Each structure stands twice: as structure tokens, then as C-alpha cells.
Amino acid sequence: MQTNFENKVTETYERAFRRGELYFVESTIANITENDIEFEIRFAPSLAKKPTAEQTEESPLKHKADPFAPYNQELFVQEFENHVILLNKFCVVPNHVLVVTKEYEEQSNLLNQEDLATMWYCMMQTKSQSTIAFYNCGSLSGSSQPHKHMQVIPLPSNVRFSPPINAIIYKYQNKVPGEIFNFSELPYVHYVTLLDPQQLSGHHGHNYKETVSQYLTENYLSLVNTMAEGFRASSLTDPFSYNFLMTHTWMMIVPRRGEKYGQISVNSLGFAGMLLVKSEEELEFVKNVGLLRVLEGVAVSKDKDQLIDNIHISV
Ligand code: B4P
């Protein structure tokens, strides 16, 4: 049984698609196993033809048009306090939504309590599929639009461990919620924390939204602070770009040092274990080089001498 939110998303999606206001991008999936994790590579050749942010139909010149202000009414799902919830115009997975600030804010800003509350609202209101929420923060994070926006994407329900990174999280179930740790299986610096189901359950009466969003914000900020402390201690410049991922049970943050590895542009979904490639050459490149090597190439390698001593990596 779909919620009102899901009905609204589906109706808007179908109407926008029929009217040619939204593009569904065909893709195929190749699986690749490294370090016992089955990763997913999504091959979407027609995306290579998508106009870039600098050159859209509305703005063929070199100045950037903001697609979220004004936003396309055909993609509008609903308002939620300081945000509008829009459908992604170029979706690889149907019903992929964007949570966009009503007032312009920079994509390099920290998430605030209202951002996290709206991301959580979209996740909780999507009951017929599992979802992952993410934020591509900063210019090296794989983001293409500078107006602050978070994203929530449905995941195929037939995948047992979805997203693929869930295939390893069960090994870390002894971690106390709130403790920050990392996966020894991954070669790049990242920080993970498990969420406490008690704190997220509906047992907080009328204060539910406030209590949950405060809890999510505390956990998000403690990941950001741990990342920043690690970089300060290593005397490297703070990364101002990172990817943030959130499911119903965990959060993860991955600092970025590069936007692309070769031709491959990586966003948060790459670190969920779902990498996107746009040509046969890119697909072959990832298979030859190794997917973890691609991710390590745009993140911070755990092997970097200066980092290994200074960034606290607990397992
Ligand atoms: P950004 O944060 O700026 O960047 P992004 O998600 O990496 O998207 P990008 O635009 O760079 O897309 P890419 O070709 O790599 O997000 C901007 C968002 O706004 C995007 O979702 C974009 O599609 C959307 N958008 C642009 N103009 C819009 C408009 N006028 N109205 C509404 N929305 C608009 O990748 C294409 C898509 O595939 C992205 O959505 C990406 O998130 C998704 N994707 C990546 N990996 C995937 C995977 N493994 N499986 C499924 N989908 C995947």
C-alpha cells in the first residue's frame, strides 16, 4: 500500500514523463565483486548526451542557469517547510527525488536540522521500496548544481543487500550506535556510524519530528567533526568536499580529493557501491583498473603515509 507521498511522486513522475518534462535514462547493470563485496556498475550510455549545467536548452551560453530557482512546476511534488521536493529531471531510477532549499544556499554548506528532517521525511514516506538519501557537498563531490539540494533515491527491492555497501555492515553490528568506525574492506578514508532504532522509533509523541531530526543532526555533525579533526591533525587542508550517505540504519561520510578518476565522475552513489558509467570505454576502464581503485582515486587513500598515522581509523 503506497502512502499519499508515494502516490504524489508516482503521479507527478508519470505526468512529467508523458509530457516530455522528465527523462528516464535507460541503463543496464553489471556486477563486479571486490574484497567480497558485490558492487553494481550502472551503464547509462544516453546520459553522455545530457546537456551540462553550463549548456542547457534554456541557457546555451556559458553562464549557469539555476534549474531549481525557478523550478519546473511539472517536477514539483510538494513543499516541506523550508524545502521543495522535486523529481529529478534526468532519472536513471524512477521516482528519484531532490530536496531543494526554497531560498538559495550553497552546495558547500553543512546540512542543517531542517535539511535532515526533510530527507528523513522522504525516506519514511517511501514505504514500498527501500531508499538511500545523499548529499554531494562541495565542488569535488560529483555535484553539478551549486544550489543546495539533497537527493533520495529508491533502491530495487529484489536486491538482498541494498545498497551494496550493506553487504558488509552486518559484520559491524557489534558497534554501539553513535560510535564512529570504518570498514576495513574499503581502501579509502571514510567514517560510518550506526543509527539507534530506539531513537528513530515513533515513541516520542508529538515531538517525534523534532527529536528525530535533532538525533540525525548530532550524528551527522559528529561524522563531519571527526573528519575535520582527522584532517587538521594530519596538517592537510580540511576537505571542503565530501559525500554523505544515509539509510534507515547507518550514516557514512567520505572526504573527497578529486572529482574524477580518468573520465569517471563519482558522486555519493559510487560510495554506496553503485557507480555510474556513461560509455563502453568507461565500463571497461573500471573493470580493468578495479572499482575500489577508482573510488580510492577520488577519495583519500588510507595508505597515504601522512594520513595513516594521523587520521584515527578505528575498526
Ligand atoms: P548533483 O548533486 O549536482 O549531481 P549528480 O547527482 O551527480 O547529478 P549530475 O547532474 O551530475 O548527473 P549525472 O549525469 O552524473 O545533482 C543535480 C541533480 O539535479 C541531478 O540529480 C540532476 O539529474 C538533477 N537535475 C538537473 N537539472 C534538473 C532540472 N531542471 N530539474 C530537476 N532536476 C534536475 O547522473 C545522472 C543521474 O543519475 C543523477 O541524478 C545521479 O544522481 C544518478 N545516478 C548516479 N549514479 C547512479 C546509480 N548508480 N544508479 C542510479 N542513478 C544514479
Provide a descriptive summary of the structure in words.
- This protein has 315 residues and is α+β, with helices and mostly antiparallel strands.
- It has one domain (4-310): ATP adenylyltransferase (HIT family, subunit A).
- 29% of the residues lie in helices and 23% in strands.
- The protein has helices at residues 4-18, 113-125, 166-169, 197-200, 208-233, 268-271, 280-289, 291-298, 305-310, and strands at residues 23-24, 28-34, 37-43, 76-80, 83-87, 90-91, 97-101, 130-137, 149-155, 191-194, 242-246, 250-255, 260-261, 264-265, 274-277.
- The strands form four sheets. It has an eight-stranded antiparallel β-sheet. It has a three-stranded mixed β-sheet with strand order 2-3-15.
- The chain is globular and about 50 Å long.
- The termini are far apart.
- Mean pLDDT is 88; it is low at 305-315.
- Bound molecules: BIS(adenosine)-5'-tetraphosphate.
Short key terms for the protein model shown above:
9 helices, eight-stranded antiparallel beta sheet, 15 strands, HIT family, subunit A, 29% helix, single chain, alpha+beta, ATP binding, globular, 315 residues, three-stranded mixed beta sheet
**Average pLDDT metric:** 88
The end-to-end distance, rounded to whole angstroms, is: 40 Å
Give unreliable regions as ranges.
Answer: 305-315
Bound molecules: BIS(adenosine)-5'-tetraphosphate
Number of separate domains: 1
Percentage beta strand:
15-25%
Work out the helicity level. 25-40%
What is the name of the CATH superfamily? ATP adenylyltransferase
Number of strands: 15
CATH C-level class is Alpha Beta
- Report the total helices: 9
> What is the third-level CATH name, the topology?
HIT family, subunit A
Question: Quick one: overall form?
Answer: globular
